[in-house]
């Protein structure tokens, strides 16, 4: 009996010890998991509240800065206000707070008169650029630019009005309104020629060149580019502007089928764009044109090497040009059509790629014809039609062109619809070696004869 009581008391002590240990450690595994999940959710809520609070603080800060009485503010106060507003607006742009950006752009006009002309221009242009970078503003971008131009005109801010008009011209080019861009550029260039703002003049002349090229007026495009280069040589230009000149030079060189020169221009443009912040789209465009140059120069296998180490620029546009390069490397029209179907938007929306698409197609057709006929001495044209999948008339034209260009050594028989290919005769080197040996022996005999004759006499 006593031993049973002892065992009972020992069991109670052990149970109480286990319970106290579980309380100290926060419960069992299930309770621990629940507590960890609760803590994680609390942390996420705190982070969300913190991010939302930061955005609200940014907007509140902007409102507080605009509410200040700036009539007697010092230069330091105005500078601090400008930096604070632009920093907060940058945060709003990163979070795509379009409505708040619009409010900031509209409300800033009340404080701009208190700033100097240079600071006011910088603030308005920067805020406008933030608004134009958001996709949500796609339908209102031109209207917003026009509103800012009207305000600058009313305030007699001539320099600001010109720079905003230059931005509007670029926007029209981006929206494929090239006729409007060309008209506006012509008027603004006439006005800027009377001033000393050469950098802005070069920017507008470049946009004129782009618009003229898009409207299939290469003569005017080249004239504008020469003018831009001439002005750029007389004054210091920013790296962005010099890269833009190189890019346009490459595009026009490609239009003249001088793709080696075009590639060198594209390479220089990429080298200038890459170190600069916010130039990702320009780098992608330049890389795309460099790949196009490799395709036209019959070097599609170099595209992979060209894009090595440039993973940060991966985009549908580069995937599209890589697909075209693969089609040319394999000499396959099927892959070409697949690439055009898959990346139709990326390939058709680019003026430069679309301009060269017909030339690329003809070039690839020739490559596929050569690939198909390579193993044969006599080829039935019906076989080519079946393999390539094109009408007989188009196949005949392509084969005839290849024969005339001496890329295929053969004869096209119209009566039997066959192509007879003549293989180049293998050159026999034995005769050439024998002749060389005779010449060597002749020189040896002549030398020995001359040596013996000199000893006799």
UniProtKB/TrEMBL annotation:
<dbReference type="InterPro" id="IPR050871">
    <property type="entry name" value="26S_Proteasome/COP9_Components"/>
</dbReference>
<dbReference type="GO" id="GO:0000502">
    <property type="term" value="C:proteasome complex"/>
</dbReference>
<comment type="subunit">
    <text>Component of the lid subcomplex of the 19S proteasome regulatory particle complex (also named PA700 complex). The 26S proteasome consists of a 20S proteasome core and two 19S regulatory subunits.</text>
</comment>
<comment type="similarity">
    <text>Belongs to the proteasome subunit S9 family.</text>
</comment>
<feature type="domain" description="PCI">
    <location>
        <begin position="355"/>
        <end position="438"/>
    </location>
</feature>
<protein>
    <recommendedName>
        <fullName>Probable 26S proteasome regulatory subunit rpn-6.2</fullName>
    </recommendedName>
</protein>
<feature type="compositionally biased region" description="Acidic residues">
    <location>
        <begin position="43"/>
        <end position="54"/>
    </location>
</feature>
<dbReference type="Pfam" id="PF01399">
    <property type="entry name" value="PCI"/>
</dbReference>
<feature type="region of interest" description="Disordered">
    <location>
        <begin position="24"/>
        <end position="54"/>
    </location>
</feature>
<dbReference type="InterPro" id="IPR040773">
    <property type="entry name" value="Rpn6_N"/>
</dbReference>
<feature type="signal peptide">
    <location>
        <begin position="1"/>
        <end position="20"/>
    </location>
</feature>
<dbReference type="InterPro" id="IPR036390">
    <property type="entry name" value="WH_DNA-bd_sf"/>
</dbReference>
<dbReference type="Pfam" id="PF18055">
    <property type="entry name" value="RPN6_N"/>
</dbReference>
<dbReference type="InterPro" id="IPR000717">
    <property type="entry name" value="PCI_dom"/>
</dbReference>
<keyword id="KW-0647">Proteasome</keyword>
<comment type="function">
    <text>Component of the lid subcomplex of the 26S proteasome, a multiprotein complex involved in the ATP-dependent degradation of ubiquitinated proteins. In the complex, rpn-6.2 is required for proteasome assembly.</text>
</comment>
<keyword id="KW-0732">Signal</keyword>
